[in-house]
Amino acid sequence: MIAVQAALTGALIGGLYALMAAGLSVTWGVLRVINLAHFGLILAGAYLTYELVTGWGLDPILTVVVTAPVLFGVGACLQWAYERMNMVEFNSLLVSFGLLMVTIQLATNTWTADFRRLAATENPYATSSLELGRLILPTTTLLAFVIAAVFIGGGHLLLRHTFLGRGMRAFAQDRTVAAAFGIDHRRLGLLVGGAAGASAAVAGMIFTLTNSLTPAVAYEWFGIVFAVVILGGVGNLLGTLVAGVGVGLLSGLVSVIWSPSTEPFVLFLAIILALLWRPHGLFHRRGVA
Amino acid sequence: MTIRKGLSYLAAVTALLAVLAHFHSSVGIAPYSIVLTTTVLFWIAQATSWNLLSGYAGYFSFGQGAYVGVGAYSMAVLTGRHDVGFLWSIPIGGLLGGVLALAVGAVAFRLGSLRGEIFALLTLAVPFLLATFARINMDIDGGQGTVIALPAYPQWVGDAQHMLFYLSLAVAALAVAVALAVHGSRYGHGLAAVHDAEDAAEVLGVPTFRYKMVAIVLGGVLGGMGGAVFAMQIGFVAVESVFGLTIPLFVIVISVLGGRRHWLGPVIGAVLVVVLQDRLSAGGLESLENIVMGALLVGLVIVAPDGLYGRLRARPWLALGAFAVVLIGMSLTGYWAELDALLYAMFAAAIVATLADRFLAQPTPKSPDATFSPTRVAADRSGRTPQPAARAAGAADAGATEVAQLPLLHAAEALPGLAEAAPQAGEARAAEAVVGLGEAAPQAGEARAAEAVVGLGEAAARGRALVSCVGVTRDFGGVRALDGVSLQVFPAEIVGLVGPNGSGKTTLVNLLCGALQPTRGTVAIGGRPIGGLAPHRVAHTGVARTYQIPRPFESMTVRDNVAMAVMFGRTGASLSQARSKAQQHLATVHLGHLADVRPGSLNLHQRQLLEMARAIAAEPVVLLLDEALAGLNPAEIDDAVAVIRRIHATGISIVVVEHLLRVLNQLSTRIVVLDRGAVIADGDPAQVLSDPAVVRAYLGRQRA
Question: What is the Cα–Cα distance from A129 to A151, expressed in whole angstroms?
């Protein structure tokens, strides 16, 4: 029973990983920008949420109304700069690594390295939970999963069924040809970068809802989020969601069966095995190389 | 600079530093300088060892902290708990760092689809994993970190700071010596080729996997040794201080700042970054340190991605001037501390060198092997007039020796112009032109002879098959690209391989050169099956190929591109031998006059000729030309066909993948037609091209 509980909680938390990974995966897949600064955006979203809740007394979930547009703007600006400087793949990895260091240090200088957590009075979701027989699902975790699933599902439908989404996929496959068919890659890029920023705002909010906050936590996201991106397949949103849930489930199980500290081993083993056997993600349909 | 000379300079500098440190009080050096220099030396060792794989071979690693950590923990645990002397702990730390690197490399480089970004992300994970490991196993550092007691050392050393200085100096000198030796050697050239075009390097005979493994292990050993000394320096080892992201950040900033393709780059970068960091903390701005470093990294990648080394080398005097002016000016005011003055002077030099190009006339770019820079202008000039040489080729090919005199006159006429521009270069070029023509004429004769032999008695001339595929099938997932293909290539043949798009031509070429393994069936070269052989081994059995989209080594001159193939080809040769041989091969394809330019300034036709020169430089028995004529205009096609004939005349069998049936009809001795992965015709060109099945495959059912 403990294992089932752990697996279920893990799977729900996996939704958060998936949401964190979604922005990274789409900018990597569509724009070929590996944006490590995305972790900085999530961190910024988390701290903004914290500020808005403790300072202004806003409902944590409502803060998204403020943070999402702000980070949409930041994400779009960032993408504009990458595009302007012609930063793709490797260079973008380096530049965004620098930006991430700057962001984390700025966060440390502003909010100190202390752990911060929303008090129970400020977080109306913290104390309630849903009970299904002997399984207990904390409301925060449940909310986190639902929001993440809605956001990613929406993104997936957009990509799959709208003209815009088709344009993006065309762009991801062959930029030159897509451009020749009238796809304005700059505007598209701004939109994707902005959407990634907004998703970071939501992910940050959810993280603040469920966890303690410290600037260095951004590093801890690295491993698990990249695991989700790679396992889900770069640029594949639905794959990201499934991979997120799977990774969360696995971590949950591992931490009750062995110990929580063995989680990273299992995760990285999973990434390496996945890279060996399914280099394009678990859900890639194989074709001619 | 030769390796020997470089090493002796390095030894002199190292000895000088050691002597200065020993007599520091007599020569008036502040003790703090020794502390600071020790830090500089640590970062020199780290950045230099990181640079072996990440700079030379271009595989960026975020995992340097892992090696430092392994070294540091080795020192802590061995000296603290097992009473191992610190002098022994340093090499053991290096050994363990090397073992870790071996493990990382063995996993990472085995991943077939490994691209640079994935490697970077994987290495990012390694320090995190080790940190977890150290946290779980409390007996490593008690979960809190562990103190390292200062060991006993001989009296003559001086104080503890001196001992740390000498140890750091030794490790840094070792790291720089290794980097220097690698940079100038055949191995270093191989790594540079991996950096520029790994696939092409592999099929030319560079054992890329082994080379990358050696680089990562060297980096791990040096990183581990540096880490062991670092542990003594900081006196307290904890998970956060070694496995965090500070070490990779600094190492990357240092190397990107200094320059990654030369051994001096990380040294320059380390001096600049450490002094900057020191001044920041002296000014009470530690909290800004990571911000400054991060911003520096961003700025560098945008403004000067190649680093300072190249810029300083292009304008040494200007940079030195700026350095001296600022240093002296600031020292004279007496208001600034020495280190401030030093920092600002270095920054002035760096900025002047970086921005000079924007405001002053373009300087002559210098190559690492400075032999050609003065002639570059002349080379570029003659680059615009390749026609005389090309004409000469055509004429010589047309038949007779007497015609060769005409282009000779042409060349002679062209000479005065060149001679004016750069007398020496002009002479060199004249000599080349003569050599090239002299060779071209007899070869043309041979070509006829060889063809005659094939024409006269094919059965007699066909000995053992050079290439033989039997029942080769290749699947990609559910798609069958080749289906039971059997094909043989005999000595002195030019086999034309044709077929509609998607019929499996390029897949077949990839199978023949070992880049792909067949799903079923066997491929043998010269009677020897190549199943399971790495492409560089297949290359050594005598197969060379060109790529449809040329993949030259962009950082090397045209000559060195070809010299690479000679060095790593079947025969193998030293760099200087290879360079002179390369010149001959370039003459064969008529690129001799462009030997000193970078591939970036060649046009498509010239790039394809370079591909061919590189391929024949490996001295193959079979040459695979993958659409070597694609995208050329008619005159260029004629020229390329002449080159192919000349290559054939030297005794190399050729497989040409091509769409231009007109050309193949003239050129090839036999045509093989592929359609949907199967051979549908194989035989005499005229016969094959009139075969109804072939016409149907190409033009559709109705026309047939």
Answer: 22
Residues near B260 by Cβ (< 8 Å), separated by ≥ 6? Answer: B51, B54, B55, B56, B266, B306, B307
**Domain for residue A184, yes or no?**
yes
- Comparing CB atoms, the residue among A87, A259, A264 nearest residue B128 is A264
- Quote the CA–CA distance of B146 and A167 in Å, as a whole number: 56
Q: Is residue A124 one of the residues assigned to a domain?
A: no
**Residue B138 forms contact with A (CB below 8 Å):** no
Cβ within 8 Å, pair B301-A91: yes
Cα gap B90→B227, rounded to integer Å: 8
What tokens does B129 get?
């994993």
SS3 assignment for B220-248: HHHHHHHHHHHHHHHCEECHHHHHCCHHH
Distance CA B270, CA B1 (A): 22
What CATH code is carried by the domain that includes residue A176? 1.10.3470
Distance (Å, rounded) from C-alpha B483 to C-alpha B475?
Answer: 8
Residue A122 lies in a domain: no
Are A264 and B244 an interchain contact pair (Cβ–Cβ within 8 Å)?
Answer: no
Instruction: State how far the Cα of B588 lies from the Cα of B605, in Å rounded to an integer.
Output: 15
Does B288 contact A at CB distance below 8 Å? Answer: yes
Q: What is the extent of the structural domain holding A94?
A: 2-114+137-277
Contacts of B195 in chain A (CB under 8 A): none
* Long-range Cβ pairs for the range B455-464 (8 Å, 24+): B461/B490, B461/B491, B461/B492, B462/B490, B462/B491, B463/B490, B463/B491, B464/B490, B464/B526, B464/B527
Record the tokens describing residue A164, joined without a space. 């815009």
**Is ipTM beyond 0.90?**
no
- Residue from A94, A110, A254, A271 whose CB has the most chain B CBs within 10 Å, to mutate: A94
- Kindly list the residues from chain A whose CB atom is less than 8 angstroms away from the CB atom of residue B125: 222-223, 226, 268, 271
How far apart are the two ends of chain A, measured CA to CA in Å? 45
Report which of B332, B328, B326 is spatially closest to residue B345, judged by C-alpha positions.
Answer: B326
Q: Do A276 and B111 touch (CB under 8 A)?
A: yes
In this structure, is residue A250 part of a structural domain? yes
A149: number of Cβ within 10 Å: 17
Chain B: residue whose CA lies nearest to A81: B302
Q: Tens of pLDDT along chain A (289 residues)?
A: 778 888 888 888 888 899 999 999 888 888 888 888 999 999 999 999 998 888 887 888 888 888 999 999 999 999 998 888 877 777 888 888 889 989 988 988 888 878 888 777 777 776 777 777 777 778 888 888 888 899 889 888 888 888 878 887 787 777 778 877 777 777 888 888 999 999 999 999 988 888 888 888 888 787 788 888 888 888 888 889 998 998 888 888 888 887 777 777 777 777 777 776 666 666 665 443 3
CA distance B198 to B547: 13
In one-letter notation, the amino acid at residue B654 is I
Of the candidates B307, B341, B313, the residue with the CA atom closest to the CA atom of residue B326:
B341
DSSP string, B317-366: HHHHHHHHHHHHHHHHH--S-HHHHHHHHHHHHHHHHHHHHHHSPPPPPP
Considering its fold, how many domains does chain A have in total? 1
B334 conformational bin, left if phi > 0, alpha if psi -120 to 50, beta if neither: left
Q: Quick one: closest CA in A to B60, which residue? A: A90
Q: Which residues of A269-278 are buried (b: 16+ CB within 10 A; e: fewer)?
A: ebbbebbeeb
CB-CB under 8 Å, B295 with A279: no
